[in-house]
């Protein structure tokens, strides 16, 4: 019987530097090889976006008594969000690719990871959840 979890290994893409090189030499073909780059791209892009937002917030709220501490919460959310929902959605993407017997080029992992951040930002800006 075929077990998808037995393929949950990270071989070539075991370091952060190898993920960001985007070398198209070996396509990602196991769940672990697909999940890890998608998750790292999601995490790094989210931290980048939230750090930019924190810098803007600190610039505008630096003289406020309590508001100057708000950027710390922004940076924490930039790490917590991909560490929770990003892990789950990255694993779901990897399992779908593996179930369909598709290989994932490293550039697609980057697109999926950054796409998760863009989708999260779009939901935050449009306030879709506030209408429910």
UniProtKB/TrEMBL annotation:
Q: Quick one: a GO cellular component term?
A: membrane
User: What keywords appear on the UniProt entry?
Assistant: Membrane, Transmembrane, Transmembrane helix
InterPro entries, sorted: TMEM170A/B/YPR153W-like
Q: Does the keyword Transmembrane helix apply?
A: yes
Coiled-coil features, chain-numbered ranges? none
Per UniProt, what is the membrane topology?
Multi-pass membrane protein
> Which cell locations does it reside in?
Membrane
Q: Which residues cross the membrane?
A: 34-58, 70-97, 109-130
Taxonomically, the superkingdom here is Eukaryota
PANTHER family named in the record: SD17342P (PTHR22779)
Family note? Belongs to the TMEM170 family.
Q: What is this protein called?
A: Transmembrane protein 170A
Provenance organism: Eumeta variegata (Bagworm moth)
